[in-house]
Amino acid sequence: MPEKADVAIIGAGVAGLTAALHLAEDGCSVLVIDQGDAFRGGSGANAGTLALQNKKSELIMFYRAALAEWRRLGDAVGGDMGYVGRGGLRVAESEEEAETLSREVARQKELGIETEWLDGNRLRHHAPWLGPSIACATYCAGDGFASPLLVGRALVEAAKRAGVGIATKRAFLGQRATDDGCRLETSAGPIDCGDVVIAAGPWSGQVGDKLGVTIPVECHVNMLSVTRRMAQFMDNQVVTHIAGRLTLKQYPNGSCLLGGGWRGRGGIDTGRKDLHLGRLEQNLRLHGQVAPHLRDAAILRSWAGFEAETPDHWPIAGGFRDHPRLFAAIPAKAGFTAGALVGRLTAERILSGETPSWARPMDPDRFQH
What we know:
- This protein has helices spanning about 15-25, 60-75, 95-110, 120-125, 150-160, 205-210, 275-290, 335-350, and strands spanning about 5-10, 30-35, 50, 90, 115-120, 135-140, 145, 165, 170-180, 180-185, 190-200, 220-225, 240, 245-250, 255-260, 265, 270-275, 300-310, 315-320, 325-330.
- By secondary structure, the protein is of the alpha+beta class.
- The strands form 4 sheets. Strands 1, 2, 8, 9, 10, 11, 19 and 20 form an 8-stranded mixed β-sheet that branches.
- It starts with a strand and ends in a 17-residue tail after the last helix.
């Protein structure tokens, strides 16, 4: 593994690896380090949802570009990422939830997001597998999902083919300035580099502290479950809930991935990410209510994973004014969806020194005092 590179990236998740890939394709020598295994942190322990209609209105144009970036990345990488773009449903159960969904549809229409309103017979014809508790839903053809396991494998292989060095189980300890950049101290020895990218997801706040910048990233512990293979019944659509309590998808092999906004136990400080069995039971019960086919499904395993969140819910992508050779690529909530675009934007900032005007709300300097 080389001990010198034009760019060193701290974090081998979706943002770090996509940034590395873009930089290497432009001729930079790149070394990615990670305290664990590549794509085994926040990026590898999530639901893989790539949906548009379940995003906040103020962020929806960013996520529209993020979904387009995933489609472009799939063509560029060439490997199987388990991407399925068959559209998605956003469901509502109560009358209050239906009213909220209706307001969301109106706002999204103003932004040019096309959705189809489904209720009554139209809903039952479109998705006869939905349970009777579902009062209405919207369908968005742009929604989809991917397999984090396959995405990680494909990105690592593509980065290696491009000449990127990936050093795992190599913790970042600190840095000091040199004449032509800086020297990163790691648990496996020093790395001399020009530019540094913080792409450590939920751990980015700790990395930022060692580099002298403020990155106020909070850590959430999400819970997920996967079923054994079963007969196809969802037509490969992704399902989200207007109340944010559910994500559901069925992979082409028949297994179903169940997630949602039910928090586990633990955090970055302790390094623990544990299941909360009471909340997990509620999550599984809700899935069986929304899709009765799941009531007889066998759960293969359940697990918890970290997810990063920023105070304003925007991702972080760009450079630091007072640290001209330091950059950050940190997807926030729904970070898997945002990751590929955040990585590309950060790479372009390093290469050109420019940030598109529409991406400036993601500048990391908004958190510096």
